[in-house]
Structures are given as structure tokens and as C-alpha cells.
Amino acid sequence: MVKKPSALPRSFLSLRRLLRRSISGRHYRRTTSATGARVAAPAQDKLKDRTVLVDVEGWLLRSPLSAFPYFMLVAVEAGSFLRGLLLLLVYPVLCLLALIGLDLRLEAMVMVSLFGLREREVTRVSKAVLPKFFLEDVTMEGLEAFKKAGTVVAVTATFPRVMVEGFLKEYLGVHAVVGREVAVAAGRYVGFLEEEHAGMERVGAFLEETEATRSKGDGAVGLLGAVGPMHHVVSRYCKETYVLSEADKKTWQPLPRDKYPNKLVFHDGRLAFRPTFFAAIAMYTYVPLGIILAALRCLAFGVLPYRVSVPLAAATGMRSRLVVGPSPDASREKNEAGGRLYVCNHRTLLDPITVAAGLNKPVTAVTYSVSPVSELLAPIRTARLTRDRDQDRRRMEALLARGDLVVCPEGTTCREPYLLRFSPLFAELTGEVTPVALDTRVDMFYGTSTKPGAKWLDPFYFMMNSRPEYRVEFLERVATAPADGEEGGHGHSIQAANRVQRVLGEALGFELTGLTRKDKYMMLAGNEGVVSGGAKK
Ligand SMILES: O=P(O)(O)OC[C@H](O)CO
């Protein structure tokens, strides 16, 4: 049927539209003009100090966006690998159902991933694990559009609020997150996701409240994707709306790492890759082989001399690169304190072992919060620190008098290219130290964790990677003793520690920070990272 042309003249229709907009105070804009020419997202200054409502999936995150990897991450990291496997098995069935018109994917993924999990643990994963992956999905133009906004309200129609809140608030500085809720009983998720309209009603109620308390009368601005359930709510509450076409969104760029509003220094979780459906299949298929490889590699490093275990591990795919500094022989000399003191940055628990392998001689490593299982299996001598300054100092002096000692003054591992603050105690033990720059690469599993119950498996997970990589570089020695006329004491040891940190940062190309073990554990685990238990001889 051909549509009957309107009897009203064009100019009258335009006037009517204008009047209607003026009365309701709403303006719809598309980021693509009627002529098809590209129009940029609203200028930052236009949204300055205003309340902006952002559609997370439609505007902020790149398209097409697959929710599966995020649910897989929650299933594995807050649940277990078994739960992840269940999600993987259920997913093809859900896709088939969606093809015949019964799209239960979201509800079923929520149920499988969250059912029975503690609310606290899912919130932790949302802050500690998911942000790394969400940040890779953020579009630069999408984020920059609301950089100067006064209040940013992020609205999600796909993800349950709990999954995106950590990333949006901690890393993008969003003020409020509104989205669908998952039912909780006695602190655990029951798995039922509330209806879409309930989520949108919450958005409406939130905006009504926000607008009522606003002092300025310029109204909220909506930033929306081309389609989605939010259009209706936004048209009721926002005075101005920008709708992004799919074609325009495709031209938007991913947010580069150096433009993250808050640096991603710390993150947690075992999976070092984005678990898409096919990547997850590959991982589960590989795991039996990975377990065998890890057992062989651990055994080789545990019982064989380094000159045999290193090439053997290399034959299984493990890569080690040793870069010896300008005076390799000097590192073998003893100094007046007894053995040499090797100071390295901390990537995994295996750092001191790789230093020993690089030197091809036994060393002692001082540790903190290492699981008794790791201590037992370590092929080198380990000695626990207590965090009691005097006691630790005496202990380290005694160890150094007996032979070479390895310290990681950051006190905890860091996965990203940053160096944490160096605790200065090491600088008081001897007149010079040998800095050792360490870097690692993994393809499937991270060999570090913050959950106390998971730590004993850290080295094993590292060894489970198909091609785990270590780069060890012995650097030129650095003097730590006060120069003539220079005052010693705590102030001096802080300066010396900072100097060593700087030398390592330059060698690795890592950024220096003043962050500490406490900062890391507060952020990732919600505790101070203090472990109980005395020092082991
Ligand atoms: O488990 P992390 O990352 O806190 O590191 C533990 C260190 O090896 C302490 O010596």
C-alpha cells in the first residue's frame, strides 16, 4: 500500500515540529547529518558541567560487542573453571534457540555465571578482573565526548549493573551506574535477571531525582546508540539527545592505554586472554596438556641443574632470555657484606629462581606471603620476612653474610609495566647492589593472584602456559652507601632505593609509581595484604 502524502504544506509541518520541540524542550540530533556527511560527537565544551546520560553498550563500548567473554570471566574468576565449562557447553544451545526466535541468552548466561555466587565476590571480580577487558572495548571518541560533563550517569541495558559498575566508577570516573539487577538472597545471587523495563524504570526514577536536585536549568543530555531500550526513557528526561549511527561508531577508535582516565596498574584473575567462545574452547582443550607441561617443567626445575632444566623447559615451549650486563664477571665477585645482593622488580613468584638460573648458582630469596606449598617446592632457599623492620634487617644481614641474596623490594608482584614503591631496607644492608630487570609474558594464565586460597597454584599456572616467557637482565651495579660527606640513615636509604627503582624503570621502560603492596591488596582483594605467621628459618 502506498502511503498517502500529507495534505499539509512542508513549511507548516516544520513549524509544527519546531513548536513541539520548544514546548517539550527536547532536541534529537544524530551524529550523521541528513546529507550523510559525518558530524562529530558533541563538542566537549557543549556538555561542560551538564548531566550526561550515557548508553554504555550503544555509545561507550565498541560494536559489535560480545557479552559472552564477560560472563565467562565472571563464571571462571568468581566461580570456577567447571562453571566456565558449563557456560561454554550451554552457549551453543542458547544460540540455536535465539535463531528460532527464543532469545534467552542473556538470562541464561546470568543464571549460569552467577547462580549461588557470593555478592561480595562478584563485586570484587567486577573491580579487579573485568576492568582490564572492558577498557579494551572503550571507544576513544565515545569517552571524550563526556569528559567535561558535570555528572555522568551510565546506563546499561545488557550487562547486570554489578558487572560494569566497578570499571565505570573506578576507571572512567562515572558518578552513577544504573542497570538491571540480579536477585540476591542471603548474600548470594539467585540468578534471576530483572525485566528490561524494570531497569529502564530505575533509570527514569534516577533521572527524575537528579533533575529535581539540579541547580542549573539546562537539562540533561543523552548519548545513545542507534537502537536500544533507552530511547524512550531518554526522550522523557533529557532535553537534548545525540544518537550515534552504527556506521559512525565503526569509525571510532579504541581508547589507547595512555588515555585511560585512571591507570590500569593492578588487576587480578587467572585468564590472561579474552575468553571468546572459540578462545574458551581452545583453552579447555589445551588444559590437560597444560597440566602435563606444568608438571614436567616444575619437576625439571625442582630436581635438575639449571644447565639441564633451562634447555629442557625451552624444548617444551618455555622461553628464557638472559641479558648479561656490561660486567658479567663483576656480578660473581663477593662484596664486603658476604654475598652479592640482587635487587629485582617483581613479576611472579619465580623471579628469584630465574635470577638463580641466570647466574647458574644457588641464591636465597627473601619472601613475604608465599604459600607454604610454594616454599616447599622452591628449588632455591627461601626466607620469610616479617615486616618488622629490625627483625627483617637482622635476618637479611645474616643471609647475605652466608651467600647471594635476591630481594624484590616492591613486596608484591605487578603484571603491568609499572614499578611499585621500593621498600628501602635493602639499601641499608650493603654498599652496592646489582639490579636485575625482569619481564614476563604469558599467553593463557596469569601466575599471580591475590586470593589467599589460590596463591599456592601461582607458579603452576605460570608453567601451564604454552609459551611462558622470562627476560632477565643483569644491570650495572648501583652504589647504595652514602658518598663522602653525604648523610646516611633512613633518608639516604630511601634515596638509594628510589635510584635503583629508576635504573630498573629505565631498563624496562616501565613507569615508576609510589604505589604499595597495601594499595594493590586494598584495590583487588579489599584487604591490606598482611599475612599472619612468623618467619621461617
Ligand atoms: O603474591 P604477591 O604478588 O603479593 O607477591 C608475594 C611476594 O612474592 C612476596 O615476597
UniProtKB/TrEMBL annotation:
Where, by residue number, does the polypeptide cross the bilayer? 70-91, 277-304
What GO cellular component entries does it have? Answer: membrane
Q: Which InterPro entries match?
A: HAD_RAM2/GPAT1-8, Plipid/glycerol_acylTrfase
Q: Which UniProt keywords apply?
A: Acyltransferase, Membrane, Transferase, Transmembrane, Transmembrane helix
- Recorded topology in the membrane: Multi-pass membrane protein
Q: Which GO terms describe its molecular function?
A: glycerol-3-phosphate 2-O-acyltransferase activity; phosphatase activity
What highest taxon heads this organism's lineage?
A: Eukaryota
Q: Where is the Phospholipid/glycerol acyltransferase domain?
A: 340-441
Subcellular location(s) per record:
Membrane
Q: Name one Pfam family in it.
A: HAD_RAM2_N
| SUPFAM superfamilies assigned | Glycerol-3-phosphate (1)-acyltransferase (SSF69593)
Record-level GO BP terms: cutin biosynthetic process
Q: Which PANTHER family match?
A: ANCIENT UBIQUITOUS PROTEIN, OS05G0280500 PROTEIN
Which family, according to UniProt? Answer: Belongs to the GPAT/DAPAT family.
Q: What is this protein called?
A: Glycerol-3-phosphate acyltransferase 3
